[in-house]
Amino acid sequence: MRTSIAVTALAAALAWAGSAAAQNKTIKIGSLSDQSSLYADIGGPGSTLAAQMAVEDSGMTAKGWKIDVISADHQNKPDVGVSIARQWFDVEKVDVIVDVPNSGVALAVNNVVKEKNKVFLNSGAGTSDLTGKACTPNTIHWTYDTYALANGTGTALTKSGGDTWFFLTADYAFGAALERDTTNAVTKAGGKVVGTVRHPLNSPDFSSFLLQAQTSKAKVIGLANAGGDTTNAVKQASEFGITQGGQTLAALLLFISDVHALGLNAAQGLTFTETFYWDMNDQTRAFAKKFASKMKNGNMPTMVQAGVYSALLHYFKAVDALGSAEDGAKVVAKMKEMPTDDPLFGKGTIREDGRKIHPAYLFQVKKPSESKGPWDYYITKATIPADQAFRPLSESECPLVKK
Amino acid sequence: MSVDSVSETITAPVEVANPRDEQIVFLLMTLALIVAPLFAYPFFLMQALCFALFACAFNLLVGYVGLLSFGHAMFLGSAGYFSAHIAKVWGWPPELAIIAAAIGAGVIGVVTGALAIRRQGIYFSMITLALSQMIYFFCLQAPFTHGEDGIQAVPQGKMLGFIDLSHQMTLYYVVLAIFLFGFLAIHRIINSPFGEILKAIRENEPRAISLGYKTDRYKLAAFVLSATLVGLAGATKAIVAQNASLTDVHWSMSGEVVLMTLVGGLGTVFGPVVGAFVIVAMQNYLAGFGQWVTVIQGVIFVACVLAFRRGIVGEIAHMFKRSL
Amino acid sequence: MIPLLGISTQALFGQLLLGLINGAFYALLSLGLAVIFGMLNIINFAHGALYMVGAFCAYFLLNLLGLNYWFALIISPLVVGALGMIIERTMLQRLAGLDHLYGLLLTFGLALIIQGVFQNYFGSSGLPYAIPRELAGGTNLGFMFLPNYRSWVIIFSLIVCLATWFMIEKTRLGAYLRAATENPALVRAFGINVPRMVTLTYGFGVALAALAGVLAAPINQVRPLMGADFIIVVFAVVVIGGMGSILGSIVTGFLLGLIEGLTKVFYPEASNTVVFVIMAIVLLVKPAGLFGRTA
To answer: What ipTM is given for this predicted complex?
Structure first.
């Protein structure tokens, strides 16, 4: 970590005293992520890098702004996340928190940000509650959410002929939400769900569940789980010849880092939705190249890391227009007012519930023979237009939405 | 196989406790904690206090009965869920939510304890570990815990109807009061006739049995008391952090409390408090090191077991030939 | 949902077979734990971490040295076994004469260190390891498609388990081992180097874990945390089997695989929990475990 947040009581007192003098033209960004375990490859150090790149590319320093990026590890513990966020706001005078994968931590931080009237640009967490029940005037959910992924994959696959589904669902709230949203999309598109098996979280072995999915004769097997569960299920599906048998494997939450970890041999044919792929156009390629050259392991950016970059660029525009990052709700309001435009996600808008709107894409993983080299993984199967990609406002439970 | 006939038990408090020493140290500790928010970040202190009570209650079992539980997270976590749910969904005032949650943890303690105390030593550790995994799976799946999202935005409310807990300093002193209550309760238990019997069981269970004590009952009572006090810590923690999550039920939390107690000094009165502050400070202030926190914890574990089995307080006490 | 009673006997048979294969991993891991416990009276908390190291070792052998799966099957346990002997010599040995719980705490700390270091260097999504070419593909058994690799896992682990059992229960070396467990002083009097035997036993126990790791590498993603949660289930298996018993750990391992397989069909949500429920029941009825002697 380039910047550590080691704070002693003394430093705290100094920061307190110093903050009165320095103000207005400073911005402090806190990249709060999982730096070491489950989600470290999705966000983690890469998100901090993306934030630093956003600072460099924004041209804010030339306009007289002084911008700092600090980072910390929430260890996937909500109480640690809350404690860091509070300290950042109270002691370090952080103005905006970015990334925050892990829905539990994100929802906890969401409350603190609102209480302190700062800004929360979430890129890493999936829960659509951030723009639903839990929405606040201080939070923008940037990159994706479970609804968008479930809806994108469910609708697109059903319409292209995969009209019978069997779910392998991780048995907890997140898995159930993914399954519920996908089921809705599938039935709306004229398909049918023929069966579901709920597996415990962190199952080392999926063969039994896969066998049940196989015997169901469903055309699509939907994996409503995440992380290690998804990669193990995919790997064992290839072992049991699921895709060779004519069934399509659809992951409802998957990142390019997972595909990279699986290797094309095991992952080929896998279908899923993302909102960003590094190899989409010249601009994304240029960003990805620069990004990968600065990463310790040479990884290409995930959509979460790209989202951090894109969100901050827009945030800077709003702060620059207002002349101060002090009042979080004001900055977010300004961000919602301005249309977004950045090299990675293109033109878009931010809705009143805090949902950033942009297209989503249905990708399929290439066969090893089709791939031209490392990280050349995806074929774009379909583009889901921005106005259909996310949950319609009419269905939103967000209290900010006037009906 | 005679597992329990070993030369050195897990705790070795040989020196006789001097009540006056203890009183002085207790007063110093209380004073330090009262003025602490002037120097350190109150939110951090509150967390540390909750963990300190957690470690003290854990120490009641390992230090004075010689039972090393590797599943105490189940009480911390489930009490957290109880108090969060009661305060948020049922809308009870915080004091009732905390008390009810602590009792709930005690009830879980009765059931799990009845199973676990059937075995000693390593078996006991592994059984508590397995039982806590069961509780973990339950918390993952029960609808009221909201899976990995946890229970969020728990209202802090007004204690006894007039103490506004959303004010940070007020909350701190309430947490401090709860901690001191728990600490003194444990102190009282240890120094009661009941505590003496527990120590007798630790030193030589067959002899205690032959003296006519139904040792299983005493062990179960100690287990339940420990569970309830851990529940008190967990319930308070949920109100402080305003959320309850799976972290607190996971077995790695059971490992952490062992670490805290080990670092501070197993079987010492003040050790767990010191250990908890050290470990929580480490986790908070080393957060920037991210990746290395687990490794550092592991190294401390190994170092403590190999070289500093008495822990910080134990070593200091040994230096002064006193018991603390 | 799958219709509960509508499941055909053939499909059920397939599920049982898969359960048995998973049981093979439990058996190998709990066997290693039992061997170590028998000799050192230590619950090796680092077992899961060393299982993971075994899998990573296979990955490195393939990607750095170009040595395939079959070499890994031999080299990886040797490497991890050597690592285990170093751990025993430098650390565990110093705990002799102390409460055995200190051994548990020490190995717990070691597990944290090992897993933490691997997480730092290899992230969490893990690394791919392909099924060896010789074992790719599968056989259609009529009622199910059985990948050849799974057949290999069960046959190979059965052989390893039985060989271990034979060595400990039926050979002279095993007799020394068992004797040293009961009365180290007496065995030493016969001129046998007991500390060395202890070191070798620990090395052998963790080598079994590494072997299980290599076997798991082509099935599971090679991840730093692959052993972290798994090992707790294995602890429960060991408690159910009765800790002193070699045969107990093998039989219970396979048996629980079967039970878990059945649970995955009829009540999949509980398939990770069923082991602990059984443990609770066994403890109520037979506190020393199914095959254990009363302590």
So the answer is: 0.83
